[in-house]
Write a structure and sequence with these properties.
By secondary structure, the protein is of the alpha+beta class. Helix content is about 30%, strand content about 30%. It folds into three domains: about 1-45 and about 95-155 and about 260-335, FAD/NAD(P)-binding domain, CATH 3.50.50.60; about 45-50 and about 65-95 and about 165-250, D-Amino Acid Oxidase, Chain A, domain 2 (2-Layer Sandwich); about 365-455, no CATH class. It is built from 13 helices and 25 strands. The strands form six sheets. Strands 1, 2, 6, 7, 8, 9, 17 and 18 form an eight-stranded mixed β-sheet that branches. A hairpin with a 2-residue loop joins strand 23 (about 405-410) and strand 24 (about 410). Helix 1 runs parallel beside helix 4 (about 95-110), helix 1 (about 15-25) runs parallel beside helix 7 and helix 7 (about 280-300) runs antiparallel to helix 8. The model is unreliable at about 355-365 (pLDDT under 50).
Length: about 450
């Protein structure tokens, strides 16, 4: 039997279901193919506070908030040195991933996506007019294919490690440690680090991150290695001799797909790139790729600027990889006790050089002066999301900005900056901006530009 669909999405994790929900809502014919029956067991229960705006976009905030997941408020942390700290981490969640992922899948189904599960798909075959995907005994023809199968990368293609190779071991301890007011625990060891969290209902998830040779040195015995690591930690030692569910091992190496998008396919979630688990934002990042990918795919399918869409999503991936890598390296660098050990040396970044002390220019200093863009600042064309599509817009660029800025506080920035040479002072510029922007927006934009050194006095 052969069927046809506009977009075939392989995998029903957070990235795939987000992509499906958005594309279906935009009127596209979408099918999700998932090999496992839902709800499925999955590791990765910790969600950072940044998840909430994304859940708003997907219109599932209230469902997630009311699902009985555990709010993260306090963590026990032993990281910088040998002293344990209690760290406030309000706004996060520890979820049961089977239930959480099922909520997102339901949202995609409600938006109009067809869900084929459990259904095992073969590697898609590219044809002159699209793709063929063998699904069980059937063949699904699709104009566009999205790979959301995580590190399996069913679509194939080359990926490159972007950080040292890392092995993750994980298990559930039942019963877990008694409640002590902290939801999560993090501990740094000489040859790796540990993370753990109380699961909704019962049990405690423990995870260890080490260099892959550590398992070889333990004779390939995952349980033996896991118990050794737990015993070495003051925060986890009580679990070392207790009952553990079978210890699982998986690759936790950061990596990125060489070609995350082309005119008829896209990779989202970990099929596009994988970040260091240190951030506890894997689900957050996966949903983000689904939203960004949806704008790019919609642009291509709806006859928009396909080149801009491809450029945008490839740039989105590069920026995400670079920013996550820099953040992780800074956190690894913050560890002191074992900084000379190989595990830590390989992951620590170069400590940032403090900026020379200087006097920041108060905003009022430029108000009465004619202004221009500061040295190094330019206006250049960039690809960005405008509404539901990717379009090219003129944007502010500067070496001190981590990416071009086309919109600021909801306003298109370049047309505002075009007024700089025409006005006798920054105050006049702000007054002209005020005529077209909501109250207070002009002053906020001017303050943002000055705080980042994007403006300088214009000398005739």
């Amino acid at each position: 039997m052969t069927g046809a669909v506009e977009v075939c999405i392989l995998g029903a994790g957070p990235a795939g279901t987000t992509l499906a929900a958005r594309l279906a809502a935009l009127g596209h014919d979408v099918a999700i193919v998932e090999r496992r029956r839902f709800p499925r067991a999955h590791v990765g229960e910790s969600l950072s506070v940044g998840i909430w705006p994304l859940l708003d976009t997907l219109e599932v905030r209230e469902r997630v908030a009311g699902a009985g997941f555990v709010k993260t408020e306090v963590a026990r942390v032993r990281w910088r040195d040998d002293v344990e700290e209690r760290v406030a981490v309000p706004g996060g969640l520890t979820v049961e991933r089977g239930a959480f992922d099922a909520l997102l899948l339901d949202r995609a189904r409600e938006a109009g996506a067809r869900v084929l599960t459990p259904s095992r798909a073969a590697r898609p075959r590219r044809r002159a007019d699209g793709w063929e995907v063998a699904v069980g005994d059937s063949v699904l023809r699709a104009h566009f294919v999205a790979d959301a199968t995580g590190r399996r990368r069913l679509l194939g293609g080359r990926s490159t490690p972007t950080a040292p190779r890392t092995l993750a071991l994980h298990s559930v301890c039942r019963p877990g440690p008694p409640a002590d007011g902290a939801q999560t625990r993090i501990d740094a060891l000489p040859d790796g680090w540990l993370w753990g969290a109380h699961l909704p209902g019962s049990g405690f998830r423990a995870m260890a991150f080490v260099d892959p040779p550590a398992l070889r040195d333990a004779g390939g015995d995952r349980t033996r290695l896991m118990r050794r690591l737990l015993a070495a930690s003051p925060l986890f030692a009580e679990l070392a001799s207790g009952p553990l569910e079978p210890v699982q091992a998986c690759d936790a190496t950061c990596n990125g797909a060489a070609a995350p998008i082309d005119p008829t396919s896209i990779r989202v979630g970990e099929a596009s790139f994988a970040i260091d688990p240190l951030s506890s934002s894997g689900v957050h990042t996966a949903i983000g790729t689904g939203l960004a990918g949806a704008a790019a795919v919609h642009t291509v399918l709806d006859g928009g600027d396909a080149e801009a869409a491809i450029d945008y999503y490839a740039g989105y991936q590069r920026h995400a990889i670079d920013s996550h890598a820099a953040s992780a390296a800074a956190i690894y660098s913050d560890h002191r006790a074992n900084r000379d050990q190989p595990f830590w040396r390989r992951r620590a970044g170069v400590p940032p050089t403090p900026a020379p002390a200087g006097r920041a220019t108060p905003p009022v200093d430029l108000l009465a002066l004619p202004v221009r863009l500061a040295a190094g600042a330019t206006i250049a064309s960039t690809s960005c999301i405008v509404g539901d599509r990717v379009q090219r817009r003129r944007a502010l660029t500067h070496p001190d900005l981590d990416r071009p800025v086309a919109f600021l506080d909801g306003a298109e920035l370049a047309p505002l900056l075009d007024l700089l040479p025409q006005a006798p002072s920054l105050a006049h510029v702000i007054a002209r901006w005020d005529a077209t922007l909501p109250a207070g927006r002009a002053e906020a934009i001017a303050g943002w530009l000055q705080a980042r050194g994007m403006l300088a006095e214009r000398v005739s």
